[in-house]
DNA sequence: TAGGCCATCTGGTCCT
DNA sequence: AGGACCAGATGGCCTA
């Protein structure tokens, strides 16, 4: 059963069922072992269901040999009190569930704007947060330096601190052989990471993101959408991608929606994923719209071909990157195009 | 079967 | 008092 299916099943579970299925509920069913904690065990069967009984305090346990308990004395758990306790607890549980659902929704939104996203196979929570952190750092570094990283160093930045499976995923989604960008292994760092502070490629930014916790595993889920990285302007030079785009881009054509790339099967064997046929531009209708939103009033640092004659060449599309749909047409096309590029290289 | 990930419950703490 | 937030505990599901 996939996680998403399971989530749906869990979500439709009634509160009462959850109450029964909860660890505490199971404990209660078994007779319970936490007698001190379980309010059920304070229930006096012969108590009236009467609010008047509430103020009664527990006295009979205070034997002379027993040390007196500090703090407020425990009240007898009358049926009425027990009922209120249950109601309060159920309400608290429901709030907590909603809170966690909100948290998960936010995390899902985050998954959609980081460079690896798949509806069917999700990055884990921790890997999503790590990737998001790396992504933010990498973009910030681009803004700060005004230099365009090459794909390798960008992917390295994205992958820093990620588990090996997720790193494989990022590479796999770009049809990159991890060996091409993974330096030699060091005992303290994941194999894909350059030494701290090292510049992976001369002339490109180095990655020094703090607070990394390398080595924690994560399942290989999702797809890499390189359009999160590269946003090109129609009709402009494309830097390293220019030869490719020269043959592909057609201005003002009808909108084209290429199929989403299926989630790549990353099982530790990269060669297998490289063997599969990358989607090439030729697979798509060449008539499509490749509009690129030009956000802001200028001053964005160039990503690619920044030194070119046109100041808008290859500018970073900040707000477009943060779109919550995650996969606009041109983004998906870029994905396929870059896959083709790096597959052939 | 072990380990990873997850949802949920729960009690404590802090805040309004 | 009640709600939000947090962390620990627990058990289910999935995969290698």
TrEMBL record:
Cellular component terms (Gene Ontology): cytoplasm; nucleus
**What processes in GO biological process is this protein linked to?**
axon development; positive regulation of transcription by RNA polymerase II; sensory organ development
Primary location class: cytoplasm
UniProt-listed InterPro entries: bHLH_dom, bHLH_transcription_factors, HLH_DNA-bd_sf, NeuroD_DUF, TF_bHLH_NeuroD
One Gene Ontology term of the molecular function aspect: protein dimerization activity
> Which Pfam families does this UniProt record tie to the protein?
HLH (PF00010), Neuro_bHLH (PF12533)
Question: What are the alphabetically sorted keywords of the record?
Answer: Activator, Cytoplasm, Developmental protein, Differentiation, DNA-binding, Neurogenesis, Nucleus, Transcription, Transcription regulation
In this chain, the stretch annotated as Disordered covers: 1-81
The annotated regions of Acidic residues compositional bias extend over 45-63
Where does it live in the cell? Cytoplasm; Nucleus
Quote the biased-composition stretches of kind Basic and acidic residues, using this chain's numbering. Answer: 24-44
Stretches assigned to coiled coil: none
Quaternary structure and interacting proteins, as annotated: Efficient DNA binding requires dimerization with another bHLH protein.
Task: Tell me what this protein is called.
Answer: Neurogenic differentiation factor
Q: Which organism is it from?
A: Parambassis ranga (Indian glassy fish)
Gene behind this chain? neurod1
């Amino acid at each position: 059963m996939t996680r998403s299916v399971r989530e749906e099943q869990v979500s439709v579970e009634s509160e009462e069922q959850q109450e029964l299925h909860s660890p505490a509920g199971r404990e209660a069913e078994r007779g319970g072992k936490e007698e001190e904690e379980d309010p059920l065990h304070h229930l006096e069967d012969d108590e009236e269901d009467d609010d008047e009984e509430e103020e009664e305090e527990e006295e009979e346990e205070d034997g002379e040999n027993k040390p007196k308990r500090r703090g407020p004395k425990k009240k007898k758990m009358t049926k009425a009190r027990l009922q209120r306790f249950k109601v309060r607890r159920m309400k608290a549980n429901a709030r907590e569930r909603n809170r966690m659902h909100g948290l998960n929704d936010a995390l899902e939104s985050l998954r959609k704007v980081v460079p690896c996203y798949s509806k069917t196979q999700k990055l884990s929570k921790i890997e999503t947060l790590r990737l998001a952190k790396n992504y933010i750092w990498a973009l910030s570094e681009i803004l700060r330096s005004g230099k365009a990283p090459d794909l390798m160093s960008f992917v390295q930045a994205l992958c820093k601190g990620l588990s090996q499976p997720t790193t494989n995923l990022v590479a796999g989604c770009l049809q990159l052989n991890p060996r091409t960008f993974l330096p030699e292994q060091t005992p303290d760092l994941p194999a894909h990471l350059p030494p701290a502070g090292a510049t992976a490629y001369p002339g490109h930014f180095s990655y020094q993101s703090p607070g990394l916790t390398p080595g924690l595993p994560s399942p290989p889920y999702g797809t890499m959408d390189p359009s999160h990285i590269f946003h090109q302007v129609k009709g402009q030079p494309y830097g390293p991608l220019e030869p490719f785009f020269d043959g592909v881009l057609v201005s003002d054509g009808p909108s084209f929606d290429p199929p989403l790339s299926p989630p790549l099967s990353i099982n530790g064997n990269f060669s297998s994923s490289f063997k599969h046929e990358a989607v090439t531009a030729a697979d798509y209708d060449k008539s499509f719209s490749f509009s690129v939103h030009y956000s802001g009033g200028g001053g964005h640092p160039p990503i690619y071909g920044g030194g070119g004659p046109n100041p808008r060449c290859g500018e970073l599309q900040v707000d477009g990157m943060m779109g919550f749909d995650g996969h606009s047409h041109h983004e998906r096309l870029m994905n396929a195009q870059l896959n083709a590029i790096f597959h052939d290289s």
